Every structure is written in C-alpha cells, then in structure tokens.
Amino acid sequence: MTFSDVTPQVAAERSLRQSEEHIREMLESSPVAVGIFSLSGSHLYSNLRYNNMFAVDADTARALAPGACFVEAGGYDGLMADLRAQKPVRDREMRMRRADGQDLWGLVSYQITRYRGQAAVIGWTHDITRIKQAEVVLQRTNEELEAVVRERVADLDRSLADLRRENAERRKIEADLRDEVNHNALLAAVIEAMSDGVTIDRKST
User: pLDDT confidence of 204, banded at 50, 70, 90?
Assistant: First the structure.
C-alpha cells in the first residue's frame, strides 16, 4: 500500500477558500455594485449593492441575464465585444433598468478575471442617476438663460433701432428748422432792403 502526503494540497485548497471568502466579504461590503458573470453570460455572483440597485433578491439575481439590466439592446454585448477586442471598458455611461421597470444611469467598468477557476467578467456599476438628472436640470436652466439673454439682446437691438430712428428724425427736424430760419432771415433781409430801396442780389447771399 502506498501513501501520499496530501497535506500541501489540502493546505492550498484551504488557503484558496479563505482567500475567496475574504474577497467575497470585501465585495459584500463594497459601496459599489459588483456583478460577476461567465463569458457565456451566466450570473455567477452579485453583491448586496448590485441586488439593491437592480431591485432583485439573491435568487432572482442568479436567474437574471446581465444584458437584461441594459436599456439599449445589445448594450452588454457591446461591452463584451470591446473586452474580447482588448479594448478597455472604463467609466462607460449606460442607461440601465431595474427589475421593477425603473430606469437609471450607470457608470460601468468591466474587465476579464477568473472566478472559482474559470474565466469570467467582473463589472462595477456606480448609480449616477442623480448626476445625470442634475445635468438635465442644468442644461434646461442654461437653455432658459440663453433664451432670456437672446430676448434681452433682441429688446436692446429694437431699442437701439428706435433710438437711431429718433435721432435721424431729430436731425431731419433740425435741418428743416435751420432751412426755415435761413429762409426767414433771407426774407427779412429782402423786406428790409426793399423798405430801404436797396436791391438784393440773391446770388451774393
């Protein structure tokens, strides 16, 4: 009978289990939603923050395909295609959907990893819905301010046009008055000359 010392193997397996348990504890306490999926798209793991974000319990999460969380058809497949092409998937803004039908915005980062001895995809998702909503409000406010500014500029342009028109009319009135004054002065001079018996040459005046 031959005996083999399996102590090192047992110790390695114990160390691996402890390491996995430690990693799971860290993921469970993470403030970021974390999901791990097989390359074929099967759900392998998700932490509590992930389940809460997408309004599922642990059992429902295990049956939930990762692509079901994306609003755009092919959203998850597009990320996977980038990973297979060795393109980084970092901080992608994606429209996502909870199991209860409520939409949200997620900032997602994905990478290839190994989980329990097999190749897998690990994904981190930050809920940035409030940020996106604030951006919409800010954009709407900017558009409203721009509209107000455009209206004020238009009012100013109209006021300037009215002022130019009034100035032109005033200059015309002033010119007409000067002509009338000159005419009256000439007429007075003619009358005075006639009364004195002096002939007035219009060309000399």
Answer: very low
